[in-house]
Amino acid sequence: MRGFDFDIIVVGAGHAGLESALASARSGLSTCLLTVNLDRIGYMSCNPSIGGLAKGHIVREIDILGGEMGFAADETCIQFKRLNSKKGPAVRGSRAQCDKELYGHHMTRVVRSEQNLRVLSGEAKSLILEAGTSGVTRCSGVRLHDGSEIRAQATVLTTGTFMRAVMHIGLEQIPGGRAGDPATIGISDQLRDFGFTVQRLKTGTPARLKAGSIDWSKTQEQKGDEKFFPFSVRSEGLKLPQVSCWLSYTNERTHEIIRKNLDKSPMFVGHIEGRGPRYCPSIEDKVTRFVERTGHQTFLEPESLSTDWIYLQGISTSLPEEVQLEMLRTIPGLEQVQVHRFGYAVEYDFFEPTQIQHSLETRQIGNLFLAGQINGTSGYEEAAGQGLIAGINAIRKVRDQEPLVLGRDESYIGVLIDDLVTKGTREPYRMFTSRAEHRMHLREDNTLDRLWKIGTEVGIAPPQLRVEMSRLVDSREALKRRLKDHVFVPNEATQTRLDQVKTARLLKPATAEELLRRPEVGFEELGHLGFSIEGIDSPLNLDAIEIDVKYSGYIERERQALEQTRRSEQIRIPDGLDFSKVRGLSREEIEKLSEKRPTTLGQASRLSGVNPSAIQALLVQILATQRSSKGISAGSDPS
Amino acid sequence: MISLRAGDQDVIAALSTAPGIGAIAVLRVSGPQAWALIRKLAPFLPQQIESHRAYFGRLIDPQNPSEVLDEVLLTTFAQGRSFTGEESVEISTHGGIDLPERVLQSILGLGARLAQPGEFTYRAFVNGRMDLVQAEAVLEAIESRSREASRVALRHLKGELSRHYSEIEDTLLWMGAHIEAAIDFSSEGIELKPSIELRTRGEQLRDQLQRLIDSYQQGRVVAQGLRVALVGAPNAGKSSLLNALVGEDRAIVTPEAGTTRDLIEVESRFRGLDLRWMDTAGLRESESVAEQLGIEKSLRARAEADFVVVVLDLSSPDWRNRLGDFVRSGHSREVYVFNKVDLDQSGEWTAASEAEAEALGISSRSFWISAASKQGLEQLLVGIEQAYRRSLRGGSGDDVLVTQARHVESLERIQEALRKALLLIEKEASPELVAFELKAGVQEIHRLLGKEFHEQVIDRVFKEFCLGK
After folding, report:
1. Total-model pTM
2. Domain span at residue A622?
3. A with B: how many residue pairs have Cβ under 8 Å apart?
């Protein structure tokens, strides 16, 4: 390594940074993980859980691609739930509430034991920028607070909510990205000066309560599911005792206290300029936006088996401490509550994500990758998914390989990155199942089938995982083949058994697959008919196969509908196309297109502010160019 | 298939009125700097040209400035305020063949290019001046042959049909949003619309779709005319009747039965109604292959026509049997014409056939005529017109009519998706399946409105355009 201390340096040891650093180290590159606070590796700054709707999908995808998050969540899970279990297999989402202390310990242990990974403590104050070979500026590492330099071939920035971060509690403002941790000053100013668009976002977190001060009898117990579906193919089952959560509600008295004190809320008096997440509003927002609601639910969630900290889900707030306490004590069960830490809002810098490419490398500075909240997202899972891809592409950059870009039809991570890069975001971006147009296909249960090939190619998964994946895929394929091959003939024995499992008799011979397509027939019923499922040991596998069979009609229709659009969508926009020369584009559209430079019509069509008629115009322009370059006259030339 | 040059900044020009003898002809010129180009022909234009103003003066030949091309009226349209969205000029010249052509050639000589078929409308569409439905309406407006047709087309052009489609889009999106919220925010304790409200909105939408689909029955007639098939036995006088109705000899008439073997289509107009007459081969057992093919065609025409005129020959003894056959197999939009009353000296045939019609319950749809003496033709036409108007569902004249097959196909697909969605809601099936169907509906309405880019759709719409529109 000429003049480099490391192949790759990752700045930040949160959920994004961890995945980047582990991917890099596991692929054999020398890696540095730089963090300000060694005690907060893989720290859950907000809610103590991993997964959830659409987020559970991402965690499983991370797992198949060789990431750590899913395994860490399984190992430290203290309550498991499958959300939306009644709303259909594609929109189900697994959520593991984790022991937050143990989660951090797990991650610390993993990074410490990784051979090629050095974990260093320090604050990156600026990036080392140098002229690259082709005149493009490149990033060659970071400069620390003490002036020393760490040089690396590629740099991944995952600074979360820390850049120029300010915490708000009431009208008080404290510099810092998280309670107890200072803000990072320097990098965002440096990049702004370089020409990056830097904007501000806001997020918030609720109070943490002392368990002993809560009257649990006034709340409703919420147990986890009986059945555990681990995120990771590496997991062997639950390791920790399972706990309950508790449900309570705000009421009119709570709301009145909030309304009376809005003049002390930093959001409402205008102290916060950053935009907050519409989808995860503070209780102040909820009370003012949904005036007619007389109560909002809140879950009281234990943060750890070893501490008495309770997380108050749904009540994030930045009101002054004394107001928070007054308000909390109106909630049933919390009349005598004592608080470990009050809620607060954080305001921080992020880079408009249209400035990065699908590889997550910035457009303006080579060898610099951005992942996580720095790109305007919210959530551990969204961060980890980007961190993994940024890590993989940093590796590929160092090795001079083509970047990995996941398709929207392949994974939620692909949807996430494509949305960010082509549309940008104005509020903290959170994943939803409705963002995925291939929703029927992008399910949790078939993550393995969707991504195992890519995961194997990427090659960062621990060898044991790769072995396990190919074993699983083989067993699924074998069972699918047997379903097609096994034929039931309508003899008396079969008909009787069909009656017994309460499904219609056969009029002609049918395969096991055809029977499984019936809503009322599952593998249990097939078993009764004499079809054995030997060789398959996990319920998750059976699920995946059954859903695939039952949904095949929908998946096929989805595929056809999207094929039609995709053909047009995948039409490439020529690299050097001068949008200002395209007839029929408005000034605003020309600016948007020139700035974001979509590479396909599909991307262009998803840019906000670009009208369908503009896409028509682009389409015609491209077709005409193609025709004339093929020597076929496009239109009647006046010559 | 149109092959338009995209992105070129050409000024295009074409004759926009039908070529031929007329008092005036209108040329249209559109493109960047169109005013500057025309100024070279029209020195009388003032320094400051205003939009939406008419200027009168003499056009000169730029090659030969002393030569006056014509005295014209120029109407100017500024960029963003014209049909195409571009700077445009409309030139009203004197009519005829030569004058407009010379003016056009002079304009082309200055660097403009002859517009391709549909290109003005295409530019209007690409420049965002209209949606796809409105673009189609331009074609309809130009092609409309009746007052009703042009009225409907103009309403489409004004966006009244698009507005209906936008409403459909809104409702589908509204329903979809509620289903999606129930999926994506199920753990946030937000209040959702009860499924009964979704169903109500869905059912209203279903009715709205049905009304639009039903309107095509009338819309197609308005846009394309009422297709009336003449059927009957060989030599019953179908072709003679056709010639009598249209007032010219379009069908070959011979005393020989089975003369008409191919389908003949002739248009005529009656009280604002466009009529498209289809003369068919007579129905009989035939050994001639050509005649046999003709008979098949005529059976098909009978099935596909909006209206069927069954022609019976009173002078032939078997009219009674034939009438019975037709009435048994016929549909409600069939009228019965007893031809050759001029041969009925005694009035005996007529009396017998009146009694028979009474017995079969078809008196109100029966007519006694003579194609030869043109007796009773007016009553027949009135009868067809009235029967047609009665057959329209009670809709008031203010209803929007769907006139394009493409739209009906789309609307039917949306209706099918909605039907499935409502069924799934009723069965309390997984919301993800409901969402799936609603999304299919949204995609289809976007395709209809041209919001989703689709090469084939665009092609289909624009390939039908003619020069200068």
Report:
1. 0.79
2. 570-629
3. 139
